[in-house]
Backbone:
């Protein structure tokens, strides 16, 4: 199947600052892609370009549309949550549902109301009287009832407590996602989305420094708790990262056969958070 | 598709405070004041304190009124729609002013624009739905509430007059003006839409663009240009048409929000056939529609269309950080 998002030499400058620097990538259908990067790395800028919210240089194709010039067509197939606090403060739950039902041909009102029946939200509640978590529940119920081909979530859980965050991703995976849908998600809470992702993309200073499936990541990156006697040998195999845990060295290897590593000590798959920290070392230096 | 209907509904939900409640509250308060005022006046007349009205002491009203006096009183009663709707039209000017100013700015400020933009709605539809609500929905409300007030006013005056022994309600009910006047004022609505459109479009364009405080930009830019022109004219002595600017740009811009200003600003009344009686609803209607014969009205409409287009482009392509 053809790519849902395909970018070639995509760039975006704000004055002299380069936010996205000549990147190329493809996102196939039916994937959940984590776009992970430090603050100011260009994540949001890239997503805004994909959503047709800002201009860019280079070539970008989303579901067959040019997002900048064909945004109106694109938005029939794409939905997004840009930030947690973007629902208008004056709107009531019932009005929000009526509105989306009125303008979105792919909105399923019954589905939305079913989601909301599991929450404390009442039809007459106004957004300004909701807690941050309740706003997200409403926004999520609205968005998950839309049968969009591409869903973009930019920091959807920012500022939410862990209960809401867990529930959010669980709903997303269990009720929304299927093989015809594609989800792109950015977050700083990388550990929490680790288990739902199929693909991983690291972005740093506007460049994509890692782009692979989660299976490839597991094959490629191995963490070893190196036994003391093998320290020198391990060091000679060029670990990309080294840290100390309880006086022992934990080294991260990229592309070294697991059989070789097993001889150095206990091996395990690396967590995204650790991989991220290793990859992004020196970002703020 | 009923997208446009939904968008207008959305506008009403967000702005019903200005569109409806401001008018309903002012109208309700005004009607109450009228009823109390008329009742007090009636009792003071009835109990012989008297009040001087047009040189006639009104406690002698019924006995001294000629048939001609009664006819004129009934004619006055048949025109209650004008005083009923007038204060609401002043409120309308303020509502349209502030509504236009916030229309494309508020959702940028609170970032809810990102929610609206996540829906399959074009920016043209968004801007046009706001324009429609401001220019068509908003002005209809005071015209209708004015109708209710005029009914209250009519009944109160009629009862008060009856209590004083004068029947003016009967003759008034038989007068065509009673029914025609609201229709004639309603028929001026298209003129208000055409008249207000350029001002609203300027405010909406600024609203779509302003980084902060749209009111300062929308009001400040034309006023500062005017001050600079006047200053330059004063200092250099060069014949800069600053007076023309103040009248035709600044005056027109802010006068654009107020219903009826066109009658004064364009001096249309002089072009309408002078008739041999005091001005009535038909005169207002004719004079209002006569503004369509003025080139500058259409130049302003063309500018309004250009600014609306600019507002749509700004809404579509303005990078929000």
Residues:
């Amino acid at each position: 199947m053809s790519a849902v998002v395909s970018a070639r030499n995509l760039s975006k400058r704000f004055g002299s600052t380069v936010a996205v620097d000549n990147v190329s990538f493809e996102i196939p259908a039916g994937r959940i892609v984590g776009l992970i990067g430090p603050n100011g790395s260009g994540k949001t800028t890239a997503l805004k370009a994909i959503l047709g919210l800002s201009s860019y240089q280079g070539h970008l194709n989303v579901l067959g549309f040019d997002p900048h010039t064909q945004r109106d067509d694109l938005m029939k197939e794409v939905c997004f949550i840009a930030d947690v606090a973007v629902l208008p403060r004056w709107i009531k739950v019932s009005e929000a549902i009526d509105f989306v039902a009125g303008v979105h041909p792919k909105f399923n009102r019954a589905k939305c109301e079913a989601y909301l029946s599991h929450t404390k939200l009442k039809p007459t509640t106004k957004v300004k009287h909701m807690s941050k978590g309740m706003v997200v529940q409403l926004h999520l119920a609205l968005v998950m009832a839309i049968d969009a081909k591409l869903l973009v979530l930019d920091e959807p859980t920012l500022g939410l407590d862990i209960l809401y965050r867990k529930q959010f991703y669980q709903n997303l995976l269990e009720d929304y996602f299927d093989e015809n849908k594609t989800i792109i998600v950015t977050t700083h809470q990388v550990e929490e989305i680790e288990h739902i992702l199929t693909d991983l993309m690291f972005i740093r200073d506007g460049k994509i420094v890692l782009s692979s499936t989660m299976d490839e990541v597991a094959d490629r990156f191995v963490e070893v708790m190196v036994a003391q006697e093998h320290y020198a040998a391990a060091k000679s195999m060029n670990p990309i990262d080294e840290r100390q845990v309880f006086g022992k060295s934990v080294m991260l290897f990229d592309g070294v056969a697991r059989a070789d590593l097993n001889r150095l000590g206990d091996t395990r798959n690396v967590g995204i958070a650790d991989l991220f920290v290793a990859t992004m070392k020196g970002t703020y230096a | 598709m009923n997208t446009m209907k939904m968008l207008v509904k959305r506008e009403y939900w967000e702005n019903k405070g200005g569109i409806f409640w401001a008018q309903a509250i002012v109208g309700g308060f005004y009607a109450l004041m009228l009823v109390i005022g008329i009742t007090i006046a009636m009792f003071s007349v009835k109990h012989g304190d008297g009040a001087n009205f047009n040189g006639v002491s009104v406690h002698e009203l019924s006995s001294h009124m000629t048939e001609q006096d009664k006819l004129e009183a009934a004619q006055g009663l048949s025109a209650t729609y004008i005083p009923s709707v007038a204060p609401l039209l002043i409120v309308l000017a303020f509502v349209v002013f502030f509504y236009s100013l916030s229309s494309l700015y508020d959702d940028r400020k609170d970032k809810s624009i990102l929610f609206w933009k996540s829906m399959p709605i074009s920016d043209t539809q968004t801007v046009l739905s706001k324009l429609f609500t401001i220019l068509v929905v908003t002005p209809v409300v005071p015209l209708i509430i004015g109708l209710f007030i005029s009914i209250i006013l009519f009944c109160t005056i009629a009862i008060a007059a009856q209590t004083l022994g004068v029947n003016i309600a009967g003759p008034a009910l038989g007068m065509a003006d009673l029914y025609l006047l609201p229709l004639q004022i309603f028929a001026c609505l298209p003129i208000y839409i055409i008249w207000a459109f350029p001002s609203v479009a300027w405010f909406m364009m600024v609203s779509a663009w302003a980084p902060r405080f749209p009111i300062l930009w929308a009001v400040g830019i034309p006023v500062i240009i005017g001050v600079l022109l006047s200053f330059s004219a004063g200092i250099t002595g060069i014949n800069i048409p600053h007076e023309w600017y103040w009248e035709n740009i600044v005056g027109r811009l802010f006068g654009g929000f107020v219903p009826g200003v066109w009658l004064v600003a364009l001096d249309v009344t002089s072009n309408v056939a002078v008739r041999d009686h005091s001005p009535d609803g038909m005169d207002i209607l004719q004079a209002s529609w006569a503004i369509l014969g003025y080139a500058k009205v259409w130049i302003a409409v063309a500018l309004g269309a250009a600014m609306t287009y600019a507002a749509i482009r700004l809404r579509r392509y303005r990078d929000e950080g």
